[in-house]
Design goal:
- The chain contains 6 helices and 2 strands; from the N terminus they run H-H-E-E-H-H-H-H.
- With about 110 residues, it is mainly α.
- The chain folds into 2 domains: about 1-30; about 35-105, Arc Repressor Mutant, subunit A (Orthogonal Bundle), CATH 1.10.10.10.
- It has a two-stranded antiparallel ribbon.
- Helix 5 packs across helix 6 (about 95-105).
- It is elongated.
């Protein structure tokens, strides 16, 4: 039995109040999740990247700071989707200091 099957079996045994509590935990846990963005140790130094790619969020944000349009970014990075840029901008808004520090760290590199 896998974890999802175990969870389903447990949910079937729970009261409505218990299910509501579990739902609150899940929502709280997912609050820091950003769809389409992942940080994987050993990939791009563990920096947040667009899934399916090795394009760090800071690269896209820096390009935008320098005046690159979304259309140009999509043209320059054919694996990117418009949705990926939306996810990157949302991640940046929530983690501005982290991304700005990554930009600074890479300026001298």
């Amino acid at each position: 039995m896998n974890v999802l099957q175990e969870a389903e079996a447990l949910l079937a045994k729970m009261t409505q109040a218990e299910k509501a509590q579990v739902l609150q935990w899940v929502v709280r846990d997912l609050g820091e999740a950003f769809p389409g963005i992942e940080s994987v140790p050993g990939v791009c130094g563990g920096e947040p990247c667009i899934v399916r790619t090795r394009i760090p969020v800071w690269v896209l944000v820096q390009a935008r700071h320098l005046g690159t349009s979304e259309a140009d970014l999509l043209r320059c990075y054919p694996t990117l989707l418009a949705e990926d840029l939306t996810n990157a901008w949302a991640y940046y808004r929530a983690h501005r200091d982290e991304i700005e520090q990554q930009i600074l760290d890479h300026e001298g590199a």
